[in-house]
C-alpha cells in the first residue's frame, strides 16, 4: 500500500533535557494528530541562567499519514 505523508513542525520545551523536550512535543501533538509515524529533530536551542542550562527548546518535524 502506498502512503502520503504530511509534515508538522512543533517545538517542545523542558527544564530537564533535550530528550524530554522532544517527548513533550510529540505527546502534545498526539492529542490532535492521528497516524504519526516518524519524527526528525530540526533544531536544538537552550536558555541559560547564571551560566547554566535553564531550559531546552527542541523543534521536531513530525510525519503523519494522510487518511484515505
Q: What do you see in this structure?
A:
The chain is α+β, with helices and mostly antiparallel strands and 68 residues long. It has a single domain, classed as Flavin-binding protein dodecin (Dodecin subunit-like, 2-Layer Sandwich). The protein has 1 helix and 3 strands. The protein has one helix at 18-30; strands spanning 5-14, 36-49, 52-65. A 3-stranded antiparallel sheet has the order 1-3-2. A hairpin with a 2-residue loop joins strand 2 and strand 3. The longest helix has 13 residues, at 18-30. The radius of gyration is 14 Å and the shape is elongated.
Beta content comes to over 45%
- How many strands? 3
CATH homologous superfamily - what is it? Answer: Flavin-binding protein dodecin
List the strand order in the largest sheet. Answer: 1-3-2
Write down the secondary-structure element order: EHEE
Category from helices, strands and their pairing: alpha+beta
Name the features.
Dodecin subunit-like; 68 residues; 56% strand; alpha+beta; 1 helix; three-stranded antiparallel β-sheet; single chain; 3 strands
Sequence-ordered SSE layout with sheet pairings:
Elements: E1 5-14, H1 18-30, E2 36-49, E3 52-65
